[in-house]
Sequence to fold (244 residues):
Amino acid sequence: MVKQSAAVIPVLVTRPRAEGEAFAAALNDRFGARLRPLVAPLIAPRFLSPSIPARDYAAIVFTSARAVEGARRLGVHLPSLAWCVGHKTAKVAAAAGFQAKSADGDAETLAKAIGNDPPDGRILYLRGVDTHGNLLELLESFGINTDVAIVYTQEAQPIAPEALALLRSPGPVLIPLFSPRSAALFRAALPPDTRAELHIAAMSNTVAEALGDLPRAALVTARHPDAGAMLDAVESLLADLPAP
Fold:
């Protein structure tokens, strides 16, 4: 039997449960037995029921797949056209029955795409409590009248005992962080007796900045704000660690 345990690198995945398990599966598909994902969410979604103005909206705007789920739970009539920040969100919106258009970028890219092909009427932006970027201001700078409704929040979760045990053990640990809030929560949850070598993949510069002076052995920022680029960032970190 081939001994693999010494070479297997743990990956601490702190995303919400559904997204975390999906990313763990993607890690397994790409890296196989080289990595051992541990899904330990630091945030969990709670859906809200805001009052939606009784207007005939021309389009809806989503900046996350979670917002699409929040829209579905509202149980109110919504426009069929949905502008989405990226391919993943557009895919989820299309599966929910929307006519989805993807900007394949960030908030600024999304605002420009809508501004270049403005809908004929007011639009509704459904989002979470915590947002990154200034999409509302950007849309209004293009003269696009926009209403906003908050359909979910992400509530902080205590760090799992398995994650604490991992961080208190010596050796490298890969930490993919997907948002400034998850980076801040991870920083706050890090035990003072941490012995692990933290090799961090940040989805954006903003995520990396949220880490502040957190001690780490390595930090790589993804080239694009999506899961595929985060897998590339993990691979970059892995390349600097001992091979099996």
About this structure: The domain at 47-153 is CATH 3.40.50.10090 (Rossmann fold).
